Amino acid sequence: LLVALVAALTGGLVVFALQTRRLRALGNIMHRYAGEDADGRLAIRYPGNTHDEIDVLGQQFNAMADKITSQIRELRQMDDIRREMVANISHDLRTPLTTMRGYLETLQLKHAELSAEEQQQYLQTALSHSQRLGRMVEELFELARLDSCESVVFSEPFSMCELVQDVTQKFQLRAREKSIQLNASLNPDAPLVYGDIAMMQRVLENLLENGLRHTPAGGSISIGVEVESGNIVVQVTDTGCGIPAEDVPRIFERFYQQDKHRSGSNSAGLGLAIVKRILELHGSVINVSSELERGTTFSFRIPATPIVINS
């Protein structure tokens, strides 16, 4: 009996020692994790695989560590985006300001030496850059408003065909000035849609602006409205330069521009980001297909029946 008792006690002590050793090992891992910096934490995990209570605790620690690692990476990515955005904002605002200042200073210093025609040209250039600056600031405020929790979609029934027709007519003069053919193909039987008509107008305007900016003289832009499976489908197709495949996933990023020579563009890279955000608020997405030197098609769909709008 004594031998059995000693054996049982010895066995219990061995089991206790093994369990406490594993608990201490898990405690040491947690202690190391708490003491490391963000980079050091990425590789620290509990290695057990016995599937007992201690292992379950270790796996819960691993799940927590994985979630923290994912959040750290997301924060770093957001910080990189923020830094790039600040740099791009600074660049895009500084360029027209610098140009404007240069022309106005020249007018001030050489007013007597410049002809009336030259003075008018300098003033017109300065005005053009001030208007560009104003558009950039307006787009920044618009995007910030769309991102805020106060952004509200005022949904109402309206005809997408009538809206497309109105917006197309608005852009006809600019298209003719650039020798671009602008056509609208509308389905007269298309039902009404529910949405914010002002926001939808902004979507159409931005897509046409984008098409005019990238379509050369002699090209064409077509905008169509069709009915498909209970949805109104809107397509804007241009015969412009197209988008490289590697750039397609990024064209809706804020301040991203396909043309790396940013100063040569009148766009701040916010138009398509605004389109994407407005459609998100309407529960929709913007799709794009493009072929180099052939053109690009943007499309989105809006349900033809009342829906709950995310605000």
Instruction: Write down the Rg.
Output: 30 Å
Count every helix, treating DSSP H or I runs of 4 or more residues as helices. 7
According to CATH, the fold-level topology of the largest domain is: Heat Shock Protein 90
> Which shape, going by the Cα principal axes?
elongated
Characterize the largest beta sheet: strand count, sense, and whether it forms a barrel: 5 strands, mixed
Order of helical and strand elements: HHHHEHEEHEEHEE
Total count of domains: 3
Q: Looking across the biggest beta sheet, what order are the strands in?
A: 2-4-5-7-6
Mean pLDDT over the full residue set: 84
List the helices and strands and how they pair.
Layout: H1 2-35, H2 38-41, H3 53-109, H4 116-147, E1 156-158, H5 160-177, E2 181-185, E3 193-195, H6 197-214, E4 220-228, E5 231-238, H7 271-281, E6 287-291, E7 295-303
Salient structural properties:
Helix Hairpins; 56% helix; two-stranded antiparallel sheet; 311 residues; alpha+beta; Heat Shock Protein 90; 7 strands; 5-stranded mixed beta sheet; 7 helices
Descriptive report:
This protein has 3 domains: 73 residues, no CATH class; 60 residues, Signal transduction histidine kinase, dimerisation/phosphotransfer (DHp) domain (Helix Hairpins, Orthogonal Bundle); 148 residues, Heat Shock Protein 90. The radius of gyration is 30 Å and the shape is elongated. A hairpin with a 3-residue loop joins strand 6 and strand 7. The protein has 311 residues and is of the alpha+beta class. It contains 7 helices and 7 strands, in the order ααααβαββαββαββ. About 2% of the residues have low confidence. The strands form 2 sheets. A 5-stranded mixed β-sheet has the order 2-4-5-7-6, covered by helices on one side. Strands 1-3 form a two-stranded antiparallel sheet.
